[in-house]
Known about the structure:
By secondary structure, the protein is of the alpha/beta class. The chain contains 35 helices and 31 strands. Helix 23 (587-612) runs parallel beside helix 27 (677-697).
Amino acid sequence: MSKKYVYLFSEGNAQMRELLGGKGANLAEMTNIGLPVPQGFTITTEACTQYYEDGRKINDEIMDEIMKNVEIMEQINGKKFGDLNNPMLVSVRSGARASMPGMMDTILNLGLNDDVVAAMIAGNPDPKFERFVYDSYRRFIQMFSDVVMEVGKKYFEELIDKMKEAKGAKSDLDLTAADLKELARQFKEEYKNQIGEDFPSDPKVQLYEAIRAVFRSWDNPRANVYRRDNEIPYSWGTAVNVMPMVFGNLNDNSGTGVAFTRNPATGEKVLFGEFLVNAQGEDVVAGVRTPMPISQMAEQFPEAFAQFQEVCKTLENHYRDMQDMEFTVENGKLYMLQTRNGKRTAQAALKIACDLVDEGMIDEKQAVLMIDPRTLDTLLHPQFDEKALKAATPIGKGLGASPGAACGKVVFSAEDAKEWNERKEKVVLVRLETSPEDIEGMKAAQGILTVRGGMTSHAAVVARGMGKCCVSGCGEIKMDEANKKFTLSGKTYSEGDYISIDGSTGNIYEGVIPTVDATIAGEFGRIMGWADKYRVLQVRTNADTPHDARKARELGAQGIGLTRTEHMFFDSERIGAFREMIVSDTAEEREAALKKLEPMQQADFEGIYEAMEGNPVTIRFLDPPLHEFIPTEEADIKALAEAKGKTVEEIKAVSESLHEFNPMMGHRGCRLAVTFPEIAEMQTRAVIKAALAVQARHPEWNMVPEIMIPLVGETKELKYVKDIVVAAADKLIAEAGSDMKYLVGTMIEIPRAALTADQIATEAEFFSFGTNDLTQMTFGFSRDDAGKFLGAYYDKKIYENDPFARVDQTGVGQLVEMAAKKGRATRPELHLGVCGEHGGDPGSVEFFHKVGLDYVSCSPFRVPIARLAAAQAAIKYPRA
Length: 880
């Protein structure tokens, strides 16, 4: 056989992630270093790709290889799959290269049927054992129905709740063997009602269907959304791990747990996790029962706990990172079921990275590489106002599962969260417990509140990964999902009522609590210091106001890569004068209106220059089409008519004449300056006068204003506008008796400009790639309208992600790279930057580093993200 599709755990290692997925590679690695892992096998990601190529079928060749490995697994474990005398039950788990909590759940206890159940019970007369077997059987039927056959969990949970009510049982543990036997019968009946056929009794059929379900889950909507958000390519596929069952639900000398070698919320170096006696792994993760802290495990299982502590040390020393582990104790014996680098909050990530450096485990570069830049977002966003928080009384308390502050209107389903969010309503998603299908709703919500589940439940882990605030396990809440309400502390809260939740303390508050900007801890400064030490790309910001400029400066911006001058005209005091300019009939009238605006623009620019303290500032001249400024309200039209001595009809006629069928490709950018040179002249005067004034106030600064002409597609067009700028600027500088330098450059945002960049560089002294417009012009679709059809493109795998969020390296990227090379061939000292929002996207920043740009520019709060991403790019791809 040419290709090997199945590897025993003893045949793999941690370096085989691409083939074995993260879970499979780590199970193999734990086997290699001698840890107690139940010995199974991994079906590779290539088998997943083959499954899709074969029309969503597992071909005979792969199935034969799987069954051969089942036989080897039987020999290793001394049990037989489907055998009545000594049956081997297995678990089936997904495991992609990257951890994907939005994928499928695990299937446990696979291989059970009525005959195997009867044979197991006959071989062990202990009544507790009979209860264990039926408990395992009903769990398997429920999991198989839910995960493999996609029958909703709720049908089975309703049957369990009915049974508990009928028997007066508080928890599942209070149900007897006879109760569980009856439940298993009811579950199979429910399965037949839903599916229309009997529950499959052949273990081989069960195994085939379970493996197929894992492969199928790679392409479910949840997984596709998660992949898009986390830059995971569709082509990777998922692996499948099959391993013999060990039973945490065997008896009271057994249990199951999830633990982290350090606290994933704070980063503190202390074992953190949860354990449930007489339970299976899903109970902890799904939050069906609220577990006990891991430290209590020491009291009930002293030997297993001591061994587990040693395993934790071994794993952390081996991987040199905080580990997230799943384990089971069967009859006092410890088994490791999974380890991976643990998901953590941004605060924890910074602390762990710094601590690992201080402990000598990693160096500065490794510390910089181990932090996901996107998670820094959560450090820079608001927390509750301390005063307001002290004055507020919590109405309840859960577990602070993911830090941050969230307030919004209560919603009870993922669908509602999504829908309300689209209407710009802030929501808090309240659920009994979350499951993978809630991913999109969790993403849309400000925060998540659950009734069940611990610190390692689905809600907690996913929220931490997303940087969302989450409070889990608030058992005092009485839920009424059907009527969209819940009761807490004697008060009922309905859909649409405001609540506030604190993901650090677990407190829940009624109403809205005001928030304040986050303060950044010492570790942040340390990591950023290391990032700045290794990065090559400079990081500037896009800022139109002194406030934004100051914020960006605080966050480490080294200048401004884009000031959009048009945003200043929308101010209520200025819009009148600007409108007068637009409806003027002569150049003289236009100049008179612009004269009113010039001191206002100059004052704006002075404020921005002051905020940037002598660092470079690039000011883009007027870009949008003029119709965007024309009034639409009758009262505004009337006021403009009176100011200009015109009739309302005349103003409406001007407005009509400015209307364009495709304004994004219409009379805008440098075309405005070609038609109305007086606009460019006024803006030049404002820029230069502001720079001269600030230079006079701060002789120690070296002011070099950068004037950017937008939307250039032809060299002569740029030359025409540049000549106007130079004439006005030189005159003012000479009059001031100054020798101040300035630069005139252009935005490369039209494909023709990229293609003729060598010619454009004869006039332009710098290029700034406006990747938002360059993307829409290259793809030929409007970013305002693309949302209507991009969803279909993602579903059909035509695009894997939004080209406006991450730069399209194949097409748009090629234009950037070509323009950079051509421009520098003409003018070697040409400096190159990016000022579209791509400048704050880590994947795009890496590309801009690789093609040799000098800086990226992004919105203020994304500056730290860009700084870290630029450092990671420089460490991974050093420039020659």
